[in-house]
Amino acid sequence: MVYRTQMEAAKKGIITPEMERVAGEERLAPEELRQRVAKGEVVIPYNKNHRPSRPQGIGRGLRTKINVNLGVSNDCCDVEEELAKADRAVALKADALMDLSSYGKTREFRRQLLARSPVMVGTVPVYDAVASLKKDLTGLTPGDFLAVVREHAEDGVDFITIHAGLNREVAAHFKRNPRLTKIVSRGGSLLFAWMEGTNKENPFYEYFDDLLAICREYDVTISLGDACRPGSVGDATDAAQVAELIVLGELTLRAWEQDVQVMIEGPGHMKIDEIAANVLLEKKLCHGAPFYVLGPVVTDIAPGYDHITAAIGGAIAAAAGADFLCYVTPAEHLKLPDAEEMKEGIMAARIAAHAADLVKGVPGAAGWDEEMSRARQELNWERMFNLALDPVKARAMREKARPSDPATCTMCGKMCAVRNINTVLAGETVKI
Fold it and tell me: 286 with 264: CB under 8 angstroms?
């Protein structure tokens, strides 16, 4: 039976090889996964021209995935450095790479990234339209924007962020309801400026059916971008954000009618007590589509430490039902991250994702913690290193400060509670 997209196959009762692989990794029955893909509750971004060797599912009941942003810009345009970061991100177990390039030979970089990436790759075509077509923003036509989307699809991009929800009606909500940090989405700001400068409707909203036709042809997953995401905790859950979310829910249904896979992007900056409600709101208004969040960053005062503010928010969001975390690095709001800052962001996001998976009851999550706890109780350091999220760092820290008693560490030495309790329970005398 012929199918063009994972969703179309699922609706026809077909379990694709990608569904089989994802189901095996997630310890889920393939038929159950097929049903979730058919309903739109799970997406498997898998462009027919890329075919990543590690297809991943994103959505209900699956392990929380993480995305790593990279790419070249006007001020930082070292292609080899960004490609090396991509390789390292994959080695550090990122589930997706997103090319945010906005300068130079963007297609050349994108093709190199796709050629070497075993994981799904996403892009934001509106950036590339501005960067590669060499026109003033308001000189771009709807046809230009769609042509760039097609180029990305042809190259093999697995998912694309499209800010189609910022239509003229939502823009009016934004203008009527003052915000502290206005619009902080780069793609959203470009489209808002284009709409204001041309006095026309958002081209991705007006020509959404044409966009769907491209995505259906190549099985590109649409990540419906949140142009009105809050850029400060004070702007969270306001009229513009909610108005856009309503439109995203309507666009989701239109995409599903064409068998195009969809996920929804979310905030942003947000206080802790609003996060769970925002996840519920997205799931309700967008009909259970997977939720992809940037953070959320839970306080605005920590530049240099926003991998931590985002990990706090990400853990809470994912525990409440968010499915995909966009990593945030210590360099957020400050600069393009270097390789070490990228690593810190990845590790923070992976911790947040796993902490949430424990709450969700994702198969295998609790077992990992139980194995680590058993290794600690046995003072089996080699086993602890092998189970660690970052074995290299864990081993290096222990080697840096060797204890006099090799069974313990330099924090407690022979007063180690684990050592002493093990000794007592073995019927031996504790000697300190």
Answer: yes
